[in-house]
Amino acid sequence: MPRSAGLSWHPIAHDLVTNALYLHGNKQLPLKDVLALADNVGRDAECLAAVAVDAARNGGEGWSEIAVAAGRSEASARAKWGGSQVSRLVAARRPALAKIEWDPATAPAKVPLVPRQGGRAAASSEDPRGLGAALRTLYRKARTSLVRVSAATGLPVSMVSALLEDRTVASWPEVYALAHALGGEPEDLRHLWECTAQDEVALDPNGESERLAAALRGARLAAGAPELATVCPPGIEVSAMQAALRGRTVPPWSVLRVFLAALGADPSSFEALWLAARVADLAEREGELRS
Fold first, then answer.
1. Looking at the structure, do residues 78 and 16 belong to the same domain, yes or no?
2. Which of 13-22, 106-115, 213-222, 266-275 is the least confident region?
3. In-domain check, residue 257
4. pLDDT category, 59, cuts 50, 70, 90?
5. Mean per-residue pLDDT for 104-112?
6. Are 172 and 193 contacting, i.e. CB atoms less than 8 angstroms apart?
């Protein structure tokens, strides 16, 4: 079975650092909270290594080279990271801080929340360009089969089919693994999942522009990945929208609203993301001017 396209380890590294910094900055956490955070750090470290190996394999490195880098035998490296092991590790991890009842006296102003690991519910058909549409775009681009995707993720074929057709809502780790297996960036689908599952949005206090950019890329996927020239607002250069999609700039809301409408997305669901990114962008510029 062909390997999936390499997955960026940056979102995992970000969550690992976020958890570790929270532990470092809070000296009076209850033991159960410390243990929960430490468990997340351990899982993230393991996933980071696995995704790095997956990226190396997609880059052409053989198992003998990976074994040398890891300081283990080739057989051991294959057993740890071969087959569907990477996707299963990614599916099992929690993508943000463990949800803990933080003490307001010691908690930071913004606490990343992990989506609730609840049961599945029927997906809403009100938004035809939501999570299922984005997954279908990735599936089409991957030129794979339901059986192969099922083998890579450990999800039943029936569930993979239901997710592609918007007939169910999976947990975030399952969607994360599915996006990975289809060669996509899971973070691009995070906003779509949160809207579909009607779950809490995990705040990223240090990456507002990147989070908005990922949500915009997800909206483009949900629209079938059209050429930017066909959906750019009047008078806006394609290069300007490319910069926004890469997290390099935060366009005015008037421009972004027209762009999202052209993609068939609901602009109102992006307004909070845009505002957070805009505020962070302005604060960064002000800091540069002062320096």
1. yes
2. 106-115
3. yes
4. confident
5. 33
6. yes
192: which residues sit within 8 A by CB, 6+ positions away?
130, 131, 134, 215, 218, 219, 222
Cβ proximity of 91 and 174 under 8 Å: yes
Residues 213 and 145 in one domain: no
Asked if residues 239 and 264 have their Cβ atoms less than 8 Å apart, the reply is no
Alpha helices in 93-171 (DSSP H): 131-142, 146-153, 157-164
What is the pLDDT, as a whole number, of residue 167?
Answer: 86
In total, the chain counts a number of residues equal to 291
For residue 283, the domain's CATH number is: 1.10.260
Q: Residue 114: inside a domain, yes or no?
A: no
Q: Match 């960064």 to its residue by tokens.
A: 284
CB burial readout 261-272, b (16+ within 10 A) else e: eebbbbbebbee
Residues 15 and 45 in one domain: yes
Is residue 20 assigned to a domain?
yes
Boundaries of domain holding 160: 131-197
First to last CA, the chain: 53
Dihedral angle sign, alpha carbons of residues 222, 55, 247, 208: positive
Report the alpha-carbon distance of residue 73 to residue 64 in Å, rounded. Answer: 8
Q: Measuring CA to CA, which residue among 221, 152, 155 is closest to residue 191?
A: 221
Domain count, the chain: 3
Contacts (Cβ under 8 Å, ≥6 apart) of 221: 133, 134, 137, 138, 184, 188, 189
* pLDDT value at residue 27: 66
Share of the chain above pLDDT 90, in %: 32
Q: Hunting for tokens 């929690």 — which residue is that?
A: 94
pLDDT confidence of residue 102: 31
